[in-house]
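Q: My collaborator sent me two sequences in one message, no labels, and asked for predicted structures for both. Can we handle them in order? The first one she listed is below.
A: Yes, handling them in the order given. First sequence, followed by its structure tokens:
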Amino acid sequence: MKKDFIAVTDFTTDEILDTFKLAREVKAKLKNRENYRPFEGQTMSMIFAKPSARTRISFETGFFRLGGHALYLSPDDISIGKREAVKDIARVVSRYNDMIMARLFDHQHMLEMAEYSTAPVVNGLTDFNHPCQIMADMLTILEHRGNLENLKITYVGDGNNIVHSWLNLAKRLPFHFVCACPEGYGPDNALVEAARNAGQSTIEILHDPKAAVKGADVIYTDVWASMGKKEEAEERAKQFQAFQVNDELMAATGKESYFMHCLPAERDRETTDSVMESKTSIVFDQAENRMHAQNAIMLKLAGLA
């Protein structure tokens, strides 16, 4: 039976933990240049409604290094929901390919793609969530801490698709998650309640960044004007001024906390250059792990691991 990865919750707790284990194993194979080619003879279409450097590079490189061939389809190649119906694109592309990765604006388009595709669909990002990123993030935390016990993660900034993915992961794994955001810029209320009701994690939405980061093992941020919000950039710069992750805020944790950012970063806006370059910044390990986490996700969807 076909399995997709549209949200973190498409995997059970055991499947998520197994994916982390698999990602570390496959990462080691690639680092050692082993001849590991489980996707030999397979193809994947990568459909981009929204361009991205990291998403394209990590998926295309990862699928190729595991023996497959990935095709890049730009916004001009496939105008999702405009030139052709999503369900038509899904049914045609899945007849050519063994897998589809899509990076779209509209989350409903992603759901429709998965419904009509006969090949597994991987969510490379939508305006609502970004599950591959969060899998890579938690993999990175696991690598650096050695475990996920008594973990507190504070996200500082806009309650966006990254926050939504953290909330979904909090339904599967136990940790303390805090979103520190200005009033009116919080995450989806229904998702917050669903994460709380899952009974796995402690979830807090706070509006005082210094209080929010106290005791945090990880401080995470993202751009203040997320996809589809760029026209609000000036207004958001005023509203989020007190939410910049700088040396003072990092010190307010009261411990040596890791700093994470899903990139691209607007240095000296949502975070400072000094924090990005600090010894506790694991931003680039996080970026590298996008490929390794995604490889493990694709292997599981393909039934090859």
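Q: And the one she listed second?
A: Here it is, processed independently of the first:
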Amino acid sequence: MSSKAKVAISKVSDLDSAQAIEAAVRESVALACDFDTLCKGKHVVLKPNVYCPSPAPTTTDPQVIAALIKAAKDAGARRVTVAEGRSISTSLFRKNTSTTKDCFAAIGMDKAALENGADIVYLEEDEFLNPSNPDAVVLKHPSIPRTILEAEVLINVPVLKNHSLTLTTLGIKNLHGTISDADKLFGHDYHRIPQKLVDILHYNKPSLTVIDGVRGQEGDHANMGQVVDMGIIISGTDTVAVDAVAESAIGFDNLQIDTTRLAHEQGHGIGDINQIEVVGTPVAEIARKFASPDIEIDEARVPGIRVWAGDYCKGCEYYVRRGIDRLVELDGLDPDNPVTLVFGKDPSVDPNVEGRVILLGDCALESHSVKRLRDKLWLTGRLKMVYCCPPMEFRMRALELAGD
């Protein structure tokens, strides 16, 4: 691609003012494109990030969605829909808020939509269609909600934040909510997920991406991340370019993020910051380096944990570490009665270990070195396992699994 992509950055003058947020949203989208022409007479679908019931900035600020609804309706949109599908972890393990409807209610996204004249589609309840694309590498035959596939204008509205597996979760990553639960789980490992996310662009290419940077989140994408007052809105018609600018603003090197690099290389957009025109506020004026995710697993840092690990990737590292964090948070560890965590390929184990033991992930469960331990735990009534790659269940159920 020879021509430069255009990405707009606007400042929010008052982070606690709905009017200031709306003004920044309107300014940003107007700088990024001919917003009136984009929306006039069209069915506009807004896709926020509401993967769980946690408030902004873990999820998209409802005030940003409200501002976009009003802007689209003022531009003459025929209909505005807010559409989202919660994460697989939320579906399986957040018992009281397991649906997108529950999550919307918990953070006030339902009110933001309905009170401003939009309708809502909870994507897990939608009709799913089955497109295919031979150019996709991982996700060749996904199931995608009709509302997303048939949107005349799809506006992607992620949050400015880190992610422990993909380093950032921005425009490309936010599209993970537009596929079926089975597809969300498929390929959700460290080696395949960047390409899988890029593959979604073959099926769902947003007309506009608007990053909610009113308040960002550093260190982690889940509810353990730290809030950063950024006061910005970033917009552009090229999702890859928008991600690249956002990544530059929070301290990542050019094309450092796999999703941006792969999308750029595969022709989905412009990810090279040198080929992007930034309008409005310069990146240098609002840049702040975000803290990197801490997912190191070190038993010396956490009394009450014993680690028996073979070879493991970042997917396993993240979910095991976040499960340990949950045990610490909920006071579920006893240094005098440690929990033994077994994970990774071919870990060195003692089949005669006493106390609490949890076998985590497909690699460990399939390892020959674990077989005798697994049999011993079963015979003594102590067998506790978490299947799947990665073992995401442990992050959500750590306290229950670690119980005697």
